[in-house]
UniProtKB/TrEMBL annotation:
Protein name (Swiss-Prot/TrEMBL): LAME_0F08900g1_1
Lineage: Eukaryota, Fungi, Dikarya, Ascomycota, Saccharomycotina
Family note: Belongs to the glycosyl hydrolase 5 (cellulase A) family.
PANTHER family tied to this protein: ERGOSTERYL-BETA-GLUCOSIDASE, PTHR31308
Gene3D superfamilies to which the protein is assigned, alphabetical: Glycosidases, Golgi alpha-mannosidase II
Amino acid sequence: MPPRVLVSEKGEFTDSEGHEIQLRGVNLDPSVKFPATPNCRSHDPLTPSFYDEAGSVCFINHPLKLEEVEHHICKLKSLGYNTIRYPFTWEALEHEGPGIYDYDFMDYTIEVLKKINKLKGIYIYLDPHQDVWSRFTGGSGAPLWTFYCAGFQPRHFSDTEATILQNSYINPSTGKEREPYPKMLWPTNYFRLAAQTMFTLFFGGKKFAPKCVINGQNIQDYLQDRFIDAVMTFYERIQQRAPELFIDRCILGLETMNEPNIGYFTDLDMSEVPKDRKLKRGTTPTAFQTFQLGEGLPAIVDTYDISVFGPRKTGTTLIDPKGKSAWLLAAERDNVDKRYNWQRGSEWEPGTCVWRLHGVWKRKGLRKPELLIADYFACDPATGAKVDLRYFINTLFLEHYEKFRTKYRDHDKDSYLFLQPPTLQEPPRLKGTSLIDEKTIYACHFYDGMSLMFKSWNKIYNVDTLGIMREKYSNPIFSVVLGENMIRKSFRKQLAQMKEEGKELLGGHVPVFFTEIGMPFDMDSKKAYQSGDFSSQVGALDALGYALEGGNLSYSLWCYCSQNSHEWGDCWNNEDFSIWSKDNVSSVPAARAIQQSGSDSESDVISSFSTIPHGHVSGLADSEEKHLCDYDGIRALDAILRPYPVKICGNFVNAEFELSRQEYRLTINAEPRPDNASGATLIFLPKFHFPMGQTIIKTTSGTFLYDPNQQLLKWSHDSGQQSISLRGEIESSKKPEDPEGCSVM
């Protein structure tokens, strides 16, 4: 049973004895974004069944088949990981219709969680995942019926560019792309009609779409209640059918909606594309143009591409839906309402854009449409307050968070709630309020903008992504960071700033957890897949590791995908973030367990630590139990596999793993012990980097015990500030058996 995870007054994770601990692992895994039956990946051709079968899909076996769980979890444990962020989607729970739950999927998931629990040593927290609202708008998350609920006709989303799907780029006869799907095009769907309207209704329907009433509720409350009820039904079923997951401390808690989006809010003038919009790629309609296109009207829209200093306009293009509407006509809506037992308010006219319904714009026949209220979403109609990003986070988003939190605490008062605001934005100002308790965790996401958009690792220059998001620079040129060393420091500074923002706005006692962070593997047009040279990926991931370990930050890498391939990446919008790929698995069975220097024999332990006490760490595991280090298929292993403090007897000060020198340095403030007894800090020390008999250890004080099976170093040290340095190499003047190979400073 893993130790209970608690939080110190300083907002650091600790065990029950107050020792600081670090949680690290992965998101397992992106395959939950699409059904298993039929296997609707984003690179499968767009056919009528894409919509026809939406209610009868099945997500069982995503993320893993039950018989595969142990195989993949053992790989993660080989990396020293102790935590899994476990995504699931609203669609997987409630795809058939509102209130109709897929209990078979829930029970399958419970069996997966139970298998993970039996393997011991892994914490899990659950993630209600979404991207761009739904896979029907190029992402993942919500079921198809939510669009019908809003009055949409999803079959015409592609015609109206209410969304752009990778599926539409695929030739049904060949299964190959008609033309290359542009890198990172899918996030632009956040600024197209379908997803932008859904988020606006979800967070602000009562204020901005009061005519959208369904079954006596405004659509905001209707959608929020269905989402929250589905998540809590799932959570409650886990509690009832697998209480041991909580008794054994396997489940840490639940996260709020993944990457909530602001919809049309903060769009000050809907006749223009906001100048501060960071992402513009491909066709880039204004909000008003999305309305027109949605009702089948043609529009000439700007096109953009991405440059180092931001979006660059490349021209204009005509989009002509030829009269096809993204909104349900009267007969279509009647059929939908009958199917889902919906009764709409009398003011909600069919076949009409909900924003035209609310007087934002108008049209008369084929005459040119007219925008009536360009700043409709920029002002709170009840209070007159300016609707900017801070307003959204501290009012509209916060209202949903409070509702979600209340329902969660009704079910579970003891587990953690991971609060996630919009990506790369400040959290709500909740310090000292009743909405923050000792079981709240601030969930952050971080991706480096340049590496993400260009899918490359540029050692020469980069930009301050967070600084740009915070509008820190009057000119983009000032955001440039030169040289790989300064880029690494910039990453560390950005993560430190996010941690500090959390402390300032939520309270110093609230821990910070990077629930998503990662780097793409398909860098440089996938050159590594042909050459075997993953140096770009290693450099990028090492820079992230440097930034995280310097702040003692817990994290879950995005991601580990059990279906990853070189051709289609993570099987979702050409993303390729998985640290493991089936195409990197060795074809030679004997090679699947990485052969490391040295062995686990007692003689090697003695030769490594012959001048100080040696042996196995007592009380951590059965010393007879053997743990096979299975790294087969893990990519960029040098950077992924990192030493870290599993438990600190005291407080963290600093840590750094210098990959090029195979050197790890840790500094702590060790707490005083009764009768001047030594304290003990545990360090995950992978033999891949630090082979026994070939590792030099220097420290300010202490003795060591090493468990080669678990790859754990137990450092018993004095109180006060203490440092340890470990270097996995042999000095030319020394032999492996030389006792000077391990010394005390």
